[in-house]
Write a structure and sequence with these properties.
Elements: E1 7-10, H1 16-27, E2 31-36, H2 40-54, E3 58-62, H3 70-82, E4 87-90, H4 111-138, E5 142-149, H5 160-180, E6 185-192, H6 198-201, H7 206-215, H8 226-236, E7 247-250
Parallel strand pairs: 1-2, 1-4, 2-3, 4-5, 5-6, 6-7
Helix pairs in contact: 1-2, 1-8, 4-5
The protein binds NADP nicotinamide-adenine-dinucleotide phosphate (NAP).
């Protein structure tokens, strides 16, 4: 199993889970093409650090997952800068103003906010995975991972928009996996329980939420970004060569309590 010299394309690498994943892949020798949305300066610092620390090629690109077709331009740039694409991880998630009306109790949900979450979660995955698959087909295969969450299994306050979009995403992953299998492209979802990142810290009741999560998590703590990074790498590795169309849940046991 080798990541040396192979290329990962990942959306949303500036912080949280995406950042942990790109460091994990770079440590294993993979070249990294990652995207940012608002944090250009942080993205530049990360790209420099990945190159200087791990000796890999690392580049950052702007992307807005509310405009899924912008993936086409991103992959064209990646073609020029990196050549082949071996792995694609759809990780970025929207927060703040775009989720107003989507991140809310059921009776306050609004079509616009819900639409934004669905676009950023499902439609962006579709276009990104299509572009990645076109490249992977040319080199005889590859692996795609969609980041999901247990908000589609466990009721989480204000999370109907995200939870229902992640449920749709996991089904989209199954369709993609089945139809891309003949090209030797594997597609899986990685579903995390609550992980301590800015996305979760932005919840209005974060401190209370954190205590609740810890108390109902058998492993007795809050998940951290690196709890998912190694699993994302495993799903892209040769060790996972017989896994496709699955959702792998990593939640410290919390979805069964
Ligand atoms: N946190 C959790 O509890 C948890 C649990 C399970 C699964 N997940 C999933 O894991 C993934 C990452 O979550 P996270 O908690 O690490 O998120 P995060 O810390 O909020 O990071 C979000 C990333 O998405 C980028 N982004 C924001 N708006 C964007 C837009 N409009 N277009 C393109 N990129 C955009 C951000 O870039 P900038 O910083 O440049 O704006 C950032 O890199 C998501 O798919 C999430 O659903 C999260």
């Amino acid at each position: 199993m080798s990541f040396q010299g192979k290329t990962l394309v990942l959306s949303g690498g500036t912080k949280g889970i995406g950042k942990a994943i790109i460091y994990e892949f770079a440590k294993a020798g993979a070249n990294i093409a990652f995207t940012y949305n608002s944090n250009a300066e942080e993205a530049e610092n990360i790209a420099k650090e990945l190159s200087s620390t791990y000796g890999v090629k690392a580049k950052h690109y702007p992307l807005n997952i509310l405009e899924p077709d912008s993936y086409k331009e991103l992959f064209t740039q990646v073609d020029t800068d990196f050549g082949d694409v071996h792995f694609f991880i759809s990780n970025a998630i929207i927060s703040g103003r775009p989720v107003v009306g989507g991140f809310a109790p059921f009776m306050r949900l609004k079509p616009k906010g819900l639409n934004n979450i669905y676009t950023a979660t499902v439609l962006a995955f579709v276009v990104g995975a299509q572009e990645a698959a076109k490249r992977m087909e040319k080199i005889g295969g590859g692996a795609i991972v969609a980041m999901s969450s247990t908000g589609n299994l466990v009721h989480t306050e204000n999370y109907a928009g995200h939870g229902s979009s992640k449920a749709a995403l996991e089904i989209m992953v199954k369709y993609a996996a089945l139809e891309l299998a003949e090209k030797n492209i594997r597609v899986n979802a990685l579903s995390g329980g609550p992980i301590e990142t800015d996305a979760l810290r932005a919840f209005p009741n974060f401190d209370q939420l954190k205590q609740d999560v810890i108390s109902r998590t058998p492993l007795g703590r809050m998940g951290q970004p690196d709890d998912l990074a190694g699993i994302a790498k495993f799903l892209c590795s040769e060790d996972a060569k017989w896994i496709t169309g699955q959702t792998i849940i990593a939640d410290g046991g919390s979805s069964f309590t």
